[in-house]
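User: I'm preparing a small set of examples for a lab meeting where we compare how different chains pack in three dimensions. I only have the primary sequence for this one, and I'd like the structure in token form so I can line it up with the others. Please keep the answer compact; I'll paste it straight into my notes.
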Amino acid sequence: MSKSNTDMRGWADVIRTIPKPLRIFALIVLALHSVPFILAPKASGLNLTLLIAGVLLLLFTLIVVAALIVMRSQTPQIGMDGKALVQPDMKYDVFVSSPMAALADGKQYKKDREKVLSVMKALRTECKFNSCVYAGRNIESMEKFEQPDDSLRDDFRNLRESKYFILLYPEKLASSVLLEAGWALAFGKPSVYFVPKREVLPFLLRQAGHTFNNIKIYECEKVDDILKIISQKREKLFQTAVDVP
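Assistant: Understood. Below is the structure token output for the 245-residue chain.
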């Protein structure tokens, strides 16, 4: 292996250790560090001075921008109470949100619950998710629903501690799933919405797929359509443009 190839591999190993937001700056600096050595023999006097000053100015600018990015990434998020938000450990792979109390009756709830459980099974099998959160997982009937305050507290904590979010919204309903979708959006969770038509979503959520690159909206009339998409996408179900190296 030639020395140049060895050097390039060494630089590649170093760049991999740098956080993703700063890698582009590392590549630019790597490209610039050899510029003076290439052009200096061809310049002299004022041209050489301008060349060196230009390279130094560009490097200084890159250092300042990189420093600002690092400072911003380390700045704690502030909650509505003015206190810093503590970033939670991600205990779960995905939070699955589907209407429960908003459904017409126990029969419809049972049918919808079976659909959600089949989706969760596909997520475990196809996406290799070991931990999926769904509020109705252990609730077989509407009579076993928890008190609203307990459900709200558990939902908020579980969603915040989940890496991904899935919305199963079969029809236009005044359901708590819309609140959960709003939480996921505020937390910046990569999210997938499965709906029969985009129009059933509130206007702002309907536009979320166009505005944010971590949200995908699929129109699916039947559960088989949802399972087909999960089977096709598998581990890439939540992959976005910013995740692609």
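A couple of notes for your slides: The chain has two domains: 3-74, 92-239. Strands lie at 92-97, 132-133, 162-168, 191-195, 215-219.

User: Perfect, thanks.
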